[in-house]
Write a structure and sequence with these properties.
It is a single chain. The protein is an alpha/beta fold. The protein folds into two domains: about 170 residues, Rossmann fold (3-Layer(aba) Sandwich); about 200 residues, Dehydroquinate synthase-like, alpha domain (Up-down Bundle). It contains 15 helices and eight strands. The strands form two sheets. A six-stranded parallel sheet has the order 1-8-5-4-2-3, sandwiched between helices. Helix 7 runs antiparallel to helix 8 and helix 8 runs antiparallel to helix 9. The radius of gyration is 20 Å and the shape is globular. The two termini are about 35 Å apart. Bound molecules: 5,6-dihydroxy-NADP and zinc ion (ZN). 5,6-dihydroxy-NADP binds next to helix 2, helix 5, strand 6 and helix 7.
């Protein structure tokens, strides 16, 4: 096992009707900025519940954070935080709203000249920042943003990762009933995103991290068990509660502690979203089977472990086991209604050059757990993903 730090200060408030406790989780004198997305929280009543809980306070609202939140939108909220002397940021929504709120926090407390500097690779990690306390009311189980210190911000035809220990939410309210209104395709995206967060930290090379491996496998097995079921039965509380908790635990540092991590699928996936507007989860389902096909040798031992322990594939030679595990993974995504080829989104081979150029422009020329995944290999992956 590698050396690691594990730090996670987020207080999770999980279960039905826990939103009623919101007011007690925020300092009583705090002036609160509530940030939300394109309107689902208005339509389905979550914002009203939030406001009812905070009824005796000064609150200001900032709506309109779009999926794949844009820098240009978020800087408007930065102005409000400064002008109104906001003390607390409350994100009400999915990953885009939570990530956007983290950026607003980072930017409102940054005294450098250019806020766009914060989006340069690794820049935000290196800073020691003052930050405002923030909290989240989660309406979409997928990104894990509710219990991690990262975010992804869209700017200038790219998706930029921000990360800083000061950006962990102080608390996150996870009431699975708030997710019942999600359309099936967003639930499916959430299952896939969670699945890929796990395999980015698990299908690498072995370091004898038995606990991390077993927890990773537990999350994958749970997702396979409940994925289709929670799409078909959106108001079944117990099934949805399992998805919500899997999503949070997949990317809160627990299974990634002390193990190698890949993140190739995410990095290429971000380019597909930036160039073609494909939902985050869907980009991952397109890329993962192709990446494993191309990286079979580098990942051989863990792919075999994945085949045997997650898909219960015990017979056949090693290559057959791996191939079957890859095709079962693809079938699982397709069974959720998520397409797994670029051509399903009308993206043809002529577009591969654009994707490779974007990767190059963003410095993504040596990816993966072994840092040897070149642009040439990315091209091969994309050719297979067509
Ligand atoms: O904007 P509104 O109107 O609220 O509608 C949203 C949005 O259209 C809707 N929605 C959310 N909750 C709902 C609902 N509709 C009905 N009922 C509800 N309860 O769902 C749509 C998608 O929302 P979004 O927040 O964009 O989805 P998601 O949670 O999948 O977040 C995706 C973003 O997270 C980033 C992605 O890159 C992408 O920008 N990621 C963040 C990570 C992190 N912070 O650690 C890691 C991830 O890998 C990911 O990269
Ligand atoms: Zn993701």
């Amino acid at each position: 096992m590698k050396n690691f730090d594990f730090y996670n200060p987020t207080h999770i408030v999980f279960g039905k009707n826990r939103l009623e406790e919101l007011d007690s989780l925020i300092d009583k004198n705090a002036k609160v900025l509530i940030l939300y997305g394109g309107g689902s929280v208005i339509k389905f009543g979550t914002l009203d519940k939030v406001k009812a809980s905070l009824k005796n306070r000064k609150i200001i609202e900032f709506g309109g954070i779009e999926p794949n939140p844009k820098y240009e939108t978020l800087i408007k909220a930065v102005e409000i935080v400064k002008k109104e002397n906001i003390d607390f940021l409350l994100a009400v929504g999915g990953g885009s709203v939570m990530d956007g709120t983290k950026f607003v926090n980072l930017a409102a407390n940054y005294d450098g000249e250019k806020l766009t500097d914060l989006l340069k690779y690794g820049f935000s990690q290196a800073l020691t920042i003052k930050s405002l306390p923030m909290g989240a009311v989660v309406t979409l189980p997928a990104t894990g943003s509710e219990m991690n210190s990262g975010g992804v911000i869209s700017y200038n035809h790219g998706k930029h990762v921000i990360s800083n220990p000061a950006l962990f939410p102080k608390f996150s309210i996870l009431d699975p009933t708030l997710t019942f209104t999600l359309p099936a395709s967003q639930v499916a995206n959430g299952v896939v995103d969670t699945f890929i967060h796990v395999v980015e930290q698990y299908v690498t090379y072995p370091v004898n991290a038995k606990f991390q491996d077993r927890v990773a496998e537990g999350i994958l097995l749970s997702l396979i068990e409940i994925g289709r079921e929670t799409i078909d039965n959106p108001e079944d509380y117990n099934i949805r509660a399992n998805l919500v908790w899997c999503a949070t635990m997949a990317l809160n540092g627990l299974i990634g502690a002390g193990v190698p991590q890949d993140w190739t699928t995410h990095m290429i996936g971000h380019e597909l979203t930036a160039l073609f507007g494909i939902d985050h989860g869907k980009t991952l389902a397109i890329l993962q089977p192709a990446i494993w096909q191309v990286r079979k040798e580098q990942k051989r031992e863990k792919l075999l472990q994945y085949a045997e322990r997650v898909w219960d594939i015990k017979t056949g030679d090693d290559d057959n086991k791996i191939d079957l595990a890859i095709s079962k993974t693809r079938d699982f995504f397709e069974s959720l209604g998520v397409k797994t080829h670029l051509s399903d989104y009308d993206i043809t081979a002529e577009k591969i050059d654009d994707i490779i150029n974007a990767l190059e422009n963003h410095g993504l020329t040596a990816m993966s757990e072994t840092r040897d995944l070149t642009l040439e290999i990315s091209r091969k992956i994309l050719e297979i993903a067509i």
